[in-house]
């Protein structure tokens, strides 16, 4: 009898070990608590032997750990995605990154100036496409699509996968056929080849720079920049093109004399209204504060009132616009005041154009510095947090490495800053957010937190 009673705890221990190992495996793989698994199995072992249950727990845990696959490194919110950096290698074929856009399939378009020039050397660059892991998409054939020294300042992806580029080109002295006008606006097919029908319809395009492009839901294309004519006809820093590249003349008529200065940024609201920001101080002869909202037809939305808007020394303005899901409007730039009150080169407006003063208070003093220091790019994450990139090195009296993240109320996300360390060593021009929350940053920088990077990095996002 004694021998039989000895075998019962032993059998129960063996059963407990097996059951607990299985439960622990399920709980750990589901990222739940091991203690919860232990509690579950302990309830299955009769109260007569807690010592047996504890032994089972210890044995099962050891078995589970021994059989578990090697643990992966834990990602830190805001830290560099080192696998992406490694996949980039020495980087793109661009000397720096001016613009970034993420396609619906997750591939990444990167625009900037060419690494080579037209002086007898084949053009390489303008736009490079990366796979989701950071390696170059060699099927994207834009390198053979143009023989001009072009810099892509802005990229917009159409719903059909075609890619609209706005930028500038620099004629090379003595380079012969290199000085071939492309109108500073071009459209690529999804494989990177030039959409020649679109080019034919845009003609010579803007005389100077096309700094911003945006695509409306109806397929029409908005172009803003530094230009006073489009294909030889008068234009005041903004035009709208039909889907085939021809000019929407009704929009131009509705604009009147439009902007008195450069249009640096364009954002289309979900209701189709159009936000423009730049260095202009009047719109169709009416005084505006370097930002304006247009109705879908192109007329000015007079209900959108910003007072005197962006102020500061001559030449400062709005560089970037982002619209939040609640209709709030984020503006970044080089301005040092808004409607007469001091701000740190960044402001949030309510949907009617009035300043959100509580948000400004949470910002503190924001960005400080000369007129050339400011915010170049603003992006909003799906959880409402806000990303800023630029050439600033401080925010509200604390160090910032040319990028920072704010909570939705305008207060700084200090954990994100800690993960970044010293951040970028030179200017950040573009910020983009992937659907998985990871953050892409491009610019002139050659190092991030002291480590060499090729003008683009991807940061982790941990909800």
Describe the structure.
Helices cover 20% and strands 28% of the residues. The chain has 463 residues and is an alpha+beta fold. The chain has a 3-stranded antiparallel sheet with strand order 1-2-3, with no helix packed on it. The protein has a 3-stranded antiparallel sheet with strand order 4-5-6. A hairpin with a 2-residue loop joins strand 14 and strand 15. Helix 1 packs antiparallel against helix 2 (34-44) and helix 1 (2-29) packs across helix 3. The chain is globular and about 50 Å long. Residues 1-11, 23-48, 56-73, 116-125, 143-147 and 170-181 have low confidence and may be disordered.
Question: Helical element count?
Answer: 8
For the record, give the distance between the C-alpha atoms at the N and C termini, rounded to a whole number: 59 Å
* Helix-and-strand structural type: alpha+beta
Provide the low-confidence segments as ranges: 1-11, 23-48, 56-73, 116-125, 143-147, 170-181
Tell me how many strands there are.
Answer: 32
Helix content: 10-25%
Global geometry: globular
Major β-sheet annotation: 3 strands, antiparallel
């Amino acid at each position: 009898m004694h021998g039989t009673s000895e075998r019962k705890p032993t059998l129960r221990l063996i059963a407990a070990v097996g059951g607990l190992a299985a439960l622990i495996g399920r709980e750990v793989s589901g990222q739940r608590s091991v203690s919860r698994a232990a509690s579950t199995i302990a309830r299955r072992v009769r109260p007569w032997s807690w010592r047996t249950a504890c032994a089972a727990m210890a044995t099962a845990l050891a078995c589970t750990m021994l059989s578990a696959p090697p643990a992966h490194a834990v990602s830190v919110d805001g830290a560099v995605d080192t696998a992406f950096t490694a996949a980039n290698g020495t980087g793109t074929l661009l000397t720096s990154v001016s613009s970034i856009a993420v396609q619906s399939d997750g591939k990444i378009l990167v625009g900037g100036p060419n690494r080579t020039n037209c002086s007898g050397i084949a053009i390489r660059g303008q736009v490079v496409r990366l796979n989701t892991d950071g390696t170059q998409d060699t099927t994207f054939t834009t390198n053979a699509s143009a023989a001009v020294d072009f810099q892509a300042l802005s990229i917009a992806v159409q719903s059909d996968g075609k890619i609209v580029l706005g930028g500038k080109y620099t004629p090379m002295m003595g380079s012969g056929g290199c000085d071939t006008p492309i109108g500073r606006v071009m459209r690529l097919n999804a494989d990177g080849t030039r959409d020649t029908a679109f080019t034919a319809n845009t003609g010579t395009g803007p005389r100077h720079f096309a700094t911003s492009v945006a695509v409306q839901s109806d397929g029409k294309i908005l172009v803003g920049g530094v230009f006073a004519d489009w294909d030889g006809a008068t234009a005041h820093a903004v035009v709208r093109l039909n889907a085939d590249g021809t000019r929407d003349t009704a929009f131009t008529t509705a604009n009147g004399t439009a902007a008195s200065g450069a249009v640096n940024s364009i954002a289309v609201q979900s209701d189709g209204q159009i936000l423009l920001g730049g260095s202009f101080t009047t719109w169709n002869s009416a005084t505006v504060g370097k930002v304006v909202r247009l109705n879908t037809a192109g007329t000015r939305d007079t209900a959108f009132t910003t007072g005197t808007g962006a102020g500061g020394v001559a030449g400062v303005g709005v560089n970037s616009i982002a619209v939040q899901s609640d209709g709030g409007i984020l503006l970044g730039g080089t301005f040092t005041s808004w409607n007469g009150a001091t701000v740190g080169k960044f402001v949030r407006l309510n949907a009617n154009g009035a300043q959100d003063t509580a948000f400004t208070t949470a910002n503190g003093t924001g960005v400080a510095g000369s007129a050339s220091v400011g915010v170049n790019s603003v992006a909003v994450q799906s959880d409402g947090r806000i990303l800023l990139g630029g050439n600033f090195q401080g925010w509200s009296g604390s160090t910032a490495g040319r990028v920072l993240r704010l909570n939705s109320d305008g207060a700084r996300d200090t954990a994100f800053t800690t993960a970044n360390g010293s951040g970028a060593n030179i200017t950040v021009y573009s910020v983009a957010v992937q659907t998985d929350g990871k953050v892409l940053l491009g610019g002139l920088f050659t190092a991030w937190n002291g480590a060499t990077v090729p003008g683009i990095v991807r940061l982790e996002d941990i909800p």
